[in-house]
């Protein structure tokens, strides 16, 4: 490596983080050699031209995300920040992740079914009953309700991080309406067009067939095994932050994009209003939260859902993916028990481990956390998207004190976790490569079989030193290449 390039990466040298591209001595990891060579040779004008071409394509295709901030009078719609230095995962590494993902969602799905039927895991004392009955996402309406194929989580998004030694940990389970699929596919499309020689020479695992798997998973839920079911994607509408994704997935899978007003309940069935009259809907892939699905069953003032939907669901005349009530398993306090679920339901040891987690409803965990808040990450159990968090090492004393008061007032509302040294990867900023922290959202599809989309979505904390990668907090994304050799 030339001295100029070595100097360019000096920021890596002084920090004790695992870097995806570089070893500690700044030699390039073998699976990154082609990518490093390509970007290290690029001149500033070429970098600027590629950046401009990419931004132009994103604007043309409307690849956007809407940011909502208390400091803004209006929501800000913007193109999702996309970094074109791909994150690369070797084949053997991915195979281990894939096994761990399949194991985890199998146990989580078994847990959700158990909670709404026998509750064996509670009766056997593995998980406290209070943690279930007080759970914001527990839906008594789902008790004893048989769902198609016993599949509660058709689409899951599991967030992974790496520590300073390069070991993978599960940070979070997203089982209700996980987002990010569109950025995964659009990122791949941009990379294959902007860097065709690099992409083709790297032998990257294909992700296109995963869309067919997604569609097949939805079809498999159709009542009575209908061969050609009518499937719709139910969106809150164009003002939703992820509306671009809803439109993208509906278009790619060839299913109808609908809002609640497009559907009607009649005779314990759901129908789609279109130019041909009423057509019976078999499967609803919903991208709105439980409480908005049906104003009769849940939140009475909801204008987004379909009155009577849960009656049709209970009658077995329509399938909903993901099933209502799946959020009981992605609560952040329940997360701490997933390794126990794997042992309980599968009789196996977890392949992928959790980040060490403290349940603040427990007196000993709470006392430890209150004494060490400046070293921990604190999260509200029912929130996602990077909201309701304290990152102790980066927080001001006033913020820490406020969280301490909130924990004392309502400890069951929070968990605390060890602050992990998230791995870093180079991003292109100002014409040069610079390190930023990343995580990985892996997407798992359950139907007749379980499928993990190769690579998933790498999310980037674009602010220097920040550990918050969520798009809702201003984070960006990278294409993720799984090598198939």
TrEMBL record:
Alphabetized InterPro entries for the sequence: ATP-dep_Glu-Cys_Ligase-2 (IPR051680), CP_ATPgrasp_2 (IPR025841), UCP005522 (IPR016450)
Signal peptide: none
All residue ranges annotated as the Circularly permuted ATP-grasp type domain in the record: 86-461
Pfam families: CP_ATPgrasp_2
Gene3D superfamilies: 3.30.1490.270, 3.40.50.11290
Domain of life, per lineage: Bacteria
Membrane-traversing stretches: none
Name the UniProt record assigns to this protein: Circularly permuted type 2 ATP-grasp protein
